[in-house]
Amino acid sequence: MEKIVESFELYGKTYRFETGELAKQATGAVLVTQGETTVLVTAVISKEEKNYDFFPLTVDFMEKMYSVGRIPGGYLKREARPSEKGTLTARMIDRPIRPGFVDGFKREVHIVATTLVCDGKNAPDCICVGGASAALMIGSAPFDGPAACVRIAHNPETDEFIVNPTYAEQETSDLELTIAGTKDYISMVEAGAQEVSEEDMLAAMEFGQQAIAAFCEKQAEFLAKVAPEPKEYPVHVPDASIAERVDAHYDEMSAALHDADKLSRIAKVEALKSSIKENDFTEEERAAWGSDIAAACKALEKHAMRRMVIESGERADGRAADEIRPLYIRPGYLPRVHGSGLFQRGQTQALSICTLGLLNEAQRLDTIDPQESKRYMHQYNFPPYCTGETGRMGAPKRREIGHGALAERALLPVLPSEDEFPYAIRVVSEIMESNGSSSMASTCGSTLALMDAGVPIKAPVSGIAMGLIKEGDDIVILSDIQGLEDFLGDMDFKVTGTEKGITALQMDNKAKGLSTEILGRALKQAKAGRHFILQAMLAEIAAPREELRDTAPRIDTIHIAVDKIREVIGKGGETIRGIQDSTGATIEIQEDGTVHIASVDQEAGKAARAAIEAIVKVPEVGEIYEGPVVGIQSFGAFIKLTPSKDGLLHISRMANGRVGQVEDVLSMGDMVKVQVIEIDPKSGKISLDRLEKPDAPEGSAPAPRHERGEREDRGERRDRGEKTDHRPGRSNREANEHRTPRRRH
Predict the structure, then answer these.
(1) Which residue of 7, 135, 479, 664 pairs with 28 in a disulfide if CB–CB is 3.0 to 4.6 A?
(2) How many distinct structural domains can be found in the chain?
(3) What's the pLDDT score for residue 701?
């Protein structure tokens, strides 16, 4: 294939599709560009069918550090496991692409998006969906494309939407909406927002749908230039008799589904499926049609559940379509931890724990994104026991990372600023029991934990998962979906927000024909559900606690001059380590001179603050100090006023009466009470006066001049007729030749 390029401009940004030069052995390969950000997206379809009862699609997003001109961190200095951002991007590509494949396609599909250039202005993620769609269609995959993805920002000053904003444009936006699909329907939505209303969110979705259609049209023009060679991929069609035999058990399946208890219902359904396999099929048929029989049983379960909802309006657990499961809410569930909250909705239970720390404990990010760190970390754990199963536990899976990111996005808009609350915040949600909507339980539980910890959030956040059953023109929107309805339904639509508006949402759609009108209905119903849940939460904890827990660190913030930072740190960090070791407090100093002092013991924090203030203290005229003698010269003694400042107590101000030698009155280490009487504005030298002066000791008066080594004959110093120049800036060099240098202080 010869190199083919399609360049175009949409919504003020330049884009390019290119194929035919790189990765030519892949089924399809496209170089897609926005600005100078360039990603190679490849698609490979395996040559053999797999005997799976699911579609084997794998998507990888490869963050290459060379794309941003950096060498990877760590010992190996090469890219290893993907970052959380990389994992989320892979999920973002997968979700709108997966529903586009025809049923019965069982060949493995592997999509790889590799970042080649990231220009620091344009994000690489959204263009990957268009690149994956084009790569699949170049390979003539059985895929319902073109598909595209756009990010929509909103400028609150101009009230304008921005398509695929730059990083700078996104910073000033009150909305970050990522939406994907085809020109005809929406398949994926993800958003974070600053308490945006349902009406404004829907308007953004409608605008996003128009933008998707425009990008799909440009992609179609590119594909017309490529003119892919048609290929016929086999689509597996099971034997018709399988469905006939399985469907005969519809009434039994419908009866098995009518059970509010998850484990009991699953046991009944699985027992029925096993009975069908054993009694309706021979051993030879089971061996030949194993995955087809399993798929038919699953289809029967799906059909029975959906028909039940459409025809009777009744759900498996007996609820109405807009009914919320019973709630159990307990803030402050655990002792000693900084904050905790238990949130249970039906048989879904989340325990969230909040931990507070210094800002230097924020997570450092080694990714291709401009963001270098994040202060708020939300982590979601889904252990096997929460569904009554065994399994291997280890690194978080894609699902756990995705759910944690959603809860994090939901709560970010309501967190106080660093200036208001100078803490790093980590919330961990442990899913104790799961029957659907665990990510929304995590969001609600985390709100409780933050409030219990005393984090002054701007407003509490609740969340709800919405579902959809669509059979032809019949549509039922479900509130607070359970696992069965998520698994067998057409939509998983999660919405979080405050009383004021939406903070985050996420939607995955399996049904073609999902319009913004349906999404608008779902948003309205979700608002009512969120309000109901939020009121139940506020009944248990009405506002963030006014005081932090005794076990939480207290952070005291002071500001010092930038030129004083070195003095506080000391040589090799000696000074600051000494303060931390002696007080037990933890100290963090930022480049702008902001100092955060953290300690569980309040007295330790006060001691550390006093030590720092003493170091940076600039003495003023009239102030009184008591400090040790740290230096003695013939003309006076140096007294330590602060850890970094000494002052000169002249010999004439040490005692009542004349003092011949400093040592007659003071010794090294003596504590002396002094008052600042003068500060030289140019040199900063400090002159002191002694308070509570003693009388000068007898015999301490100055000795005669000849005993002090001075010339007896003043005439020898200069001729009688010689004049001394007293003009400013002039000096008698001969007279100064033997003068003792002054100590700088």
Answers:
(1) 135
(2) 5
(3) 66
